[in-house]
Amino acid sequence: MIYLASPYTHEDPAVMQKRFEQVQTFTIYMIHKGAIVFSPIVYCHEMAVKADLPKDALFWQKQNADMLRRSDYFMVLKLPGWETSRGVQWELSMAEALFLPIDMIEVEIESN
């Protein structure tokens, strides 16, 4: 299973929505290629919006840590803001501690 990290939290909800749409588009692409992918943003964004759950990395850290431990591979989708995302940096450091293979992905993604 691939754990797909990407930036999410932002003070502007429109930026968060765009990030969700971009990572969802990439996740769909990867699934079409036959990959098994877990993206915390794709999995949790709509639940967080619908149930008014916190949208910060700290709230989701325990769940994400458990998913990272079950992963075989780690990818970072280098959307704008990935370098300063506390969530992505935490996920990256945990992936390194777990000795997961790491791939940094740069793609142009248009969301609909």
Map the helices and strands.
Layout lengths: L1 E4 L7 H20 L4 E2 L1 H12 L5 H13 L3 E5 L8 H12 L4 E4 L7
- What is the C-level CATH assignment? Alpha Beta
Q: Number of DSSP helices?
A: 4
Named CATH topology: Rossmann fold
Q: Please state how the strands of the largest beta sheet are arranged side by side.
A: 2-1-3-4
Question: What would your notes on this structure say?
Answer:
The protein has 112 residues and is α/β, with parallel strands linked by helices. The chain has one domain (13-105): Rossmann fold (3-Layer(aba) Sandwich), CATH 3.40.50.10400. It is built from four helices and four strands. Strands 2-1-3-4 form a four-stranded parallel sheet, with helices on both faces. Strand 1 (2-5), helix 1 and strand 2 (37-38) form a beta-alpha-beta unit. Helix 3 runs parallel beside helix 4. The longest helix has 20 residues, at 13-32. It is globular, with a radius of gyration of 13 Å. The model has no long low-confidence stretch (mean pLDDT 87).
